[in-house]
Amino acid sequence: MNKLEKFFNPQSIAIVGATEEAGKVGNILTKNLLELGYAGEALNHSVQGKIFLVNPKHEKLFGQKCYKNLSEIEKPVDLAIVAIPAKFVSEAVKTGIDKTKNFIIISAGFSEIGAEGKVREKELAEIAAQNNLNILGPNCLGFIIPALKLNASFAAGLPPEGDIAFVSQSGALISATLDLAVKENLRFSKIISIGNKMQMDEAEIMEYLAKDEETKVIALYLEGISDGKKFIETCQKISKPIVILKAGRTERSQKAIASHTGALAGSDLIMDAVFRKCGVIRAENLGEFFNLLEMLSRGKIPPNNSVAIVTNAGGPGVLTTDAFKNQKIQLAEFSDDLKRELKSVLPPESSVENPIDLLGDAGMERYDKVLGILGQNESIGSIIFVLTPQALTPVEKIADRIIEFGKNTAKNVTTVFIGYDQVSGSIQKMEASGLPNFLCPEEAVKALNGTRSMEHITHNTEQNINSGRREETGKILQKALDENRKALFFAEAKNIVEKYGIPTINFWTAADETVQFPAAVKVDSDKVLHKTDKQGLILDIKDKISLDEAVSKLKNNFPGENIIIQPMLPRDVELIVGLKRDPVFGPVIVAGLGGIYTEIFQIAELIVAPAGKEDIKNILLNGKLGFLFQATRGKKPYPLEKIIEIISGVQELAMESENIQEVDINPLLIYNNEKDPVAVDIKIII
After folding, report:
1. Angle at 485 between CA 482 and CA 489, to 5 degrees
2. Beta strand pairing status for 60-61 and 64-67?
3. For all residues of the chain together, what is the average pLDDT?
4. Is residue 315 domain-shared with residue 437, that is, in the same domain?
5. 3-state class of 317 per DSSP?
6. Are residues 232 and 95 in the same domain?
């Protein structure tokens, strides 16, 4: 906090590259600082913002003294903004080290342009590290602090002052957001462009914003995260709502050719798992991003998932009900007592189910009585008011009553006033009072649902490293590496996973005399990872003659490769439990429905390591696999605790063996009787 206090609350700013030449970035920066209020208004009610202009080509600019470089400035400088060609930036920073420790590098031409730019950025990073500098950028827009009338960027204007801090990797999106801010009625505490994130990244800035008293909601647009561990640890320490719009949904961090696990754990799915682990709210698109910011900035975090709908129109009420499909929030189930209370104050034609239909002729009296009843009901966490302006509807009076109710309740109060001319004044009044309003029910429900993402937070768990087990595993892996293999043989994989408590199927070689029938014969090779696709697997072998034929066939098809034999086990449910080592976030565990249709159905959960057993349990129970652990239609639930132990074992393997890139246990056969789960096929890729 102290490190960045002067950075984002500067009382003096130098502009390197200031100019009177229209169209130049240095010109826009200088005008923003001189003309939008920062230089003319008192900061913190005591100190006036001081501006120093730096350009070696001029003695004076904008009627004031111009310095040749930062070192010539007589007084200390809280912040220097550099907007000159990239090849001159490092030298300009060096000359200012004795004057300031804080720099915004607006200049482009660094790592974003390729090899030459990367060299420049590396040099700049070394200067920063050696001199303990704070550098925002390079290749960034700058930042804006509306409360200080401070626009230290080359974006136009000042947005309304409020409590949303917006951090963006895209300067263009900041410009667009500023333009949309008035229309969307969004108000900001800070707007910060991070550009290339050479030194100050989103995690460091979030940590600062977490302690910023003016910020209620932290919003980010990100294209990538460079330090996954730092990002997760920072998010988990922050109690304020964090909303992220993450670009690149269709991209994958690497091609998933090695395993089913790799195919299931695409980079965007990993990002979803990371956000769930951190309690971050993810926006699906820009419209939803703005809606979430409106909800979190103006609305209250609901105390529970239960929502009541109050409407004066049946159709919109039904549409609001439909919007609850597949959401975490739920329509409240009204008790008989609550229904009786509502019936006693409403006309017989009104519906007292949920939604509550007050009818088209509803006046203030009905709203008053219903609000009185709902306000006393603690089981309801949120109320959505859906209103259409009908002939007998006193829109303004109803809006005033809802505003009053919202101020005096812990419930989330959200409005959907549908229309334009007849409701616009009331909408403005409600938004000014702090109530969120949405144009349509679907937007309101989705935004309200987003607030519940904060509750599903998993926390990092310290892992105890078993040094003896780690050493034994390491020897097996090293042998494979020495032989230039990319995967382990089944015997090696079985040896390793059993050290981590994972029960594994028995096997024989083709030379063994004693084999249990029915049996399966499979090729065991580091080059044939998908046996079914390559016809390297023959099932349901009933006798010795058939076995010999199968072995001979696979030897002919895969000359020089190992052939193994396994017993055919009864099949009930097949799971996949796997591991992928993500380049940004490290080990990610996959647990889902397995077998040959793994990639087709893609019913799987991702767990970002490290995660405790209670966290793993919550993810399994609340996710796509939850149905397996419930008694349904006479079937017993499957063994949740045993599956948690297996997932924990794979996680421990990942934490102890960094040479392992991917693990596929597929299928893992599970049973809803006393029989233990058993791993049938295991791939360990190094």
Report:
1. 110
2. antiparallel
3. 91
4. yes
5. helix
6. yes
Q: 125: which residues sit within 8 A by CB, 6+ positions away? A: 198, 199
Distance CA 313, CA 164 (A): 34
Last residue of a domain, one of 537, 568, 599: 568
Q: Is residue 225 part of a domain?
A: yes
Q: Which of 167, 171, 170, 153 is nearest to 36 (CA)?
A: 153
What own/partner pairs with CB < 8 Å and gap ≥ 24 does 533-538 have? none
Strands 64-67 and 188-193: unpaired
Does residue 484 have a pLDDT over 90? yes
What CATH number does the domain containing 519 carry?
Answer: 3.30.1490.20
List alpha helices for 376-423, DSSP H.
395-407
pLDDT digits (tens, 9 = 90+) for 156-211: 889 999 999 999 999 888 988 888 887 778 999 999 999 999 999 999 999 999 99
Burial tier of 360 (Cβ tally within 10 Å: 0-12, 13-18, 19+): middle
Beta bridge partners of 103: 80, 135
Query: What are the backbone angles phi and psi of residue 120, rounded to the nearest 5°?
Result: -60, -45
Quote the crossing angle between the two packed helices 441-450 and 314-322, to the nearest 10°. 40
Residue 394 carries which side chain, given as an amino acid letter? P
Amino acid at 680: V
Tell which residue, 670, 613, 600, 667, has the closest CA to residue 644: 613
Same domain (yes/no): 584, 530:
no
Pairing of strands 330-331, 306-311: parallel
Q: Are 158 and 149 in contact (CB under 8 A)?
A: yes
Q: Which of 260, 263, 686 is nearest to 489 (CA)?
A: 686
pLDDT at residue 254 tops 50 = no
- Enclosing domain of residue 331: 300-455
Q: Are 265 and 586 in contact (CB under 8 A)?
A: no
Domain check: are 522 and 609 in the same one? no
Domain boundary among 455, 490, 521: 455
User: 419 and 347 in one domain?
Assistant: yes
For residue range 10-34, what is the model confidence (pLDDT) as tens digits? 999 999 999 999 999 999 999 999 9
Please indicate, yes or no, whether residues 124 and 77 belong to a single structural domain of this protein.
yes
Tell whether 76 and 92 lie within a shared domain.
yes
Whichever domain contains 96, its CATH number is 3.40.50.261
Q: What is the pLDDT of residues 111-130, one digit of tens each?
A: 999 999 999 999 999 999 99
Q: From start to end of 31-133, where are the E strands?
A: 42-43, 47-48, 50-54, 60-61, 64-67, 79-82, 102-105
Query: What is the spatial distance between Cα 401 and Cα 92, in angstroms, rounded to a whole number?
Result: 60
pLDDT at 104 over 50: yes
| pLDDT computed for residue 178 by the predictor | 84
Q: What is the C-alpha separation between 172 and 179, in angstroms, rounded?
A: 11
Say what the pTM is.
0.90
Give domain status of residue 514, yes or no: yes
Any residues with CB less than 8 A from the CB of 248 and at least 6 apart, and which? 223, 224, 267, 268
**Cα 438 to Cα 452: distance, rounded to the nearest angstrom:** 18
With respect to residue 257, please indicate whether it lies within any of the assigned structural domains: no
Residues 355, 314: Cα–Cα separation, whole Å: 9
Residue 600 has pLDDT above 80, yes or no: no
Number of domains forming the structure of the chain: 4
Q: Is residue 85 part of a domain?
A: yes
CATH label of the domain that carries residue 655: 3.30.470.20
The share of the chain scoring above pLDDT 70, in percent, equals 94
124 and 77, same structural domain? yes
- The Cα-based distances of 596 to 75, 426, 533, 540, 622 in angstroms read 71, 58, 9, 16, 25
**Number of helices (H), then strands (E), in the chain:** 22, 31
